[in-house]
Amino acid sequence: HAFGPEVSQAHVYSKAVTPIVEAVIRGYNGAVIAYGQTGAGKTHTMVGTRTRDGQGMAPRAVADIFASLEGKASWAVAVSALEIYNERVRDLLSPSGASVEIHEVCVDDQRQTFRCPDATMWPARSPEEALDALADVVSRRETACTEMN
């Protein structure tokens, strides 16, 4: 999906992220990827602001996932965050920002997925713990300009 600057966070979430969150709730892995040049608004889209209308994709997804778990006897949530920067995949939850490898995996003849077995998996027992992981991620990402700018 690609959206213009006039589109609300709620619209982006409902069109692009809700189907992924629904799959995660059913037990599948999910990934939301923001791509663009430095200063294009990737962090704003993914994290947003503290207001309900301004919340980004990650806080909305966290809220929906944990709301779906209320009343369930057994569940586990783990958060991981990867950054692809200058052809290098970095684990943003690793204190060292270690490089990790992504492996493509065939599910069947028509579907493929990916695995990143060395990525840090941050257990989250509450929305607050998941959002704490997000705060760590934002502070560790690369923000330098690229030649495209």
From TrEMBL:
Select a single GO molecular function from the record's annotations and give it: microtubule binding
- Supply the name of the protein: Kinesin motor domain-containing protein
Write the record's keywords in alphabetical order, separated by commas. Answer: ATP-binding, Coiled coil, Motor protein, Nucleotide-binding
The family classification in the record reads: Belongs to the TRAFAC class myosin-kinesin ATPase superfamily. Kinesin family.
Kinesin motor domain span? 1-149
Q: Which organism is it from?
A: Alexandrium catenella (Red tide dinoflagellate)
SUPFAM superfamilies the UniProt entry points to = P-loop containing nucleoside triphosphate hydrolases
Q: Which Pfam families match?
A: Kinesin (PF00225)
Q: Where does ATP bind?
A: 36-43
PANTHER family per the UniProt record, alphabetical: CENTROMERE PROTEIN E (PTHR47968), CENTROMERE-ASSOCIATED PROTEIN E (PTHR47968:SF75)
- One annotated GO biological process: microtubule-based movement
Report the domain of life of the source organism.
Answer: Eukaryota
